[in-house]
Amino acid sequence: MYELRSPTVKRRRIAKELATLRERAGLTRAAAAKALDMSPGNLGRIENREITARPVVVRAALALYGVTGDDAEALVELARGATERGWWQNYGDVLPDWFGFYVGLEEEAASIATYESEIVPGLFQTADYAREIFRLTTQDSDIEPKVAARLRRQEILTRADPVEVTAVLNEAVLLRPVGTAAQFRAQLEHLAGLFELPNVSIQVLPFAAGGHAAMTGPFMVIKFPDALDEPIVYLDNFTRGQVLEEPEHFTAYQDVHSRLRKLSLSPEESLDRIRVLISTIG
Fold this sequence. Notes:
This protein has 282 residues and is α/β, with parallel strands linked by helices. 49% of the residues lie in helices and 12% in strands.
């Protein structure tokens, strides 16, 4: 059995299991909450992942739903893990809750399919490039912790069981200079270096491809190692990110990503395009 590492995904799994088991037991949320001596609102917050269920609450709920033995102990142990702190929580003062939730999902990912229209994806950014992006898009004066958190996220690319990342970059990403010429050149060189990683695929969507299905904005599609954890879509904007968990959203965005890849330059052609651009920067 795959061992979950992210407390965020553990909390997501527990919430889903408790809701499913309650429904299977034929109990309404109100009836279950009454039997557990809690308000329906609190039980709803647990099932909606707004709060983490303590192991003692999970054990009581499982007993109510008729789950005992090894199955119950496995879920209680999962609940204990859900109360642990992920590394991203050490950056709680600079990572808003909604993005911390995303990072917790990203940490557990098996694969990420992403499309970026304007900027180099966070997982591919150099420190200088990230610093300049934060300077341009936030009001914070102290951005170094944000840069540190972004660089820490990138470890999923090179860890022992790295995440597979398939990225489509609009050509504008490569043509819009960010920071000084030297900093932007270093960013493109870093991007070119990522082609050497066997788990990373990068394709450039050229302007010549014309209109396409993702012109409304960037997105990420995340799949997890365990089939029990349903894939998600993440959308990011100026003030807030959004996680979409409905299967129809995953199917739609996965289809769009596949179509974008067909419109894009091959990875080999994309690397050549990046190298040509590097050679034009003094």
